[in-house]
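To fix ideas, we now present one chain and its tokenised fold:
***
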Amino acid sequence: MIDPNGSPEVDPSLLQIWGGSPLEGHVKISGAKNSALAIIAGALLCSQDCCVRNVPSLVDVRRMSQLLLALGVKLQQRGDILEIDASVIGHSQAPYELVSQLRASFFVIGPLLARLGIAQVPLPGGCTIGARPVDLHVRGLQAMGADVQIEHGMVHAYVSDGSRKLKGAKIYLDYPSVGATETLMMAATLAEGETTIENAAQEPEVVDLANFCREMGAKIRGAGTNTIVIAGVPSLHSTDYKIIPDRVEAGTFLVAGAITHSELSLSPVVPEHLMAVIAKLQDIGVQVIAESPDSLRVMPGYSLTATDIETLPYPGFPTDMQAPFMALLTLSKGDSVITETVFENRLRHVAELNRMGADIRVKGNHALIRGVPMLSGAPVVATDLRASAALVLAALAADGKTTIQGLHHLDRGYEQLEMKLLSLGAKLQRLSP
């Protein structure tokens, strides 16, 4: 069983990495973190039991599971299989101590409103990479007939009419937010009538959640495009569903091969989900080959050249790959520019990469990167989840030993990263105090 008592976790341990070792071998890519979080929340929509497979073992997934337990849902975990029985939801209020640690926990507001007609969810926490307000979620739920009040850091939402049912609505999102798209799509599955979400997020994780809901009997079309249409149904039924592979983990290992000039194979992957990352790798001189429909091989070039990157909603270059790619561009010949358009506070890893000998300047939301011949090992601190991955990648290529603090960020999003790197020949160890 999963411990229902969530508490803040700041890992005081250190990761030591000795750079310069070539990597070789095969990497098994885990299930997608961002799919798992939304799908676990989505299981609240089902008044029967569900089985979710390929669930990665991550701190964030454990926190989301703890949140469902706190709501009175029954969960059982066996390896990468999570069995969820939400036939009875005992509470409509999510506990602050869990929601404050995990932004994705706010997703439960949609399913709770859809099932119970009432939800009380604290404003969310998570990585401090930007404001990421919940106003798009709130406005969409209001359009569907919910009364929503925000008081003392708590979002109170309820359906006031006698049916306690949300109503179908036409919703336009000012920004194609993944979280808002997923929250409103889940809420709409049990609403009365038809809901249309315009300017919807098109990320693969949105499609994965829609497929999960469809397998439970939801009527959703258009997921993966900018217009999603949901026809509400009275209830959803059991399903057995397998989560897609994690495209960010796959992208991180592609960069690991490139930055260490190593040949690696990765599976399972969905190459289509990695098109923007593969295109940029090829731009700088790295070859990525599709060995099979679900397997990629990275064939690194030995002279990497600069390129410019602008993060955008899918199918553009993913913000979650910005920091790992920055590590790679520090060692690419010439001048590169990375423009971060998705989150306003997601360049804090620059100072840590510069500590390792990188030449990066920040102007607003632009990082100007001048390639250097080599990086040097140094003590560094991870500032968020993807920044932690960037520091690991830089350390693998650096001369000497790098010591990384802030591993609680790393453990939120990468399953068994150290074990996977060790199996490829990396030299590293985690030291606990």
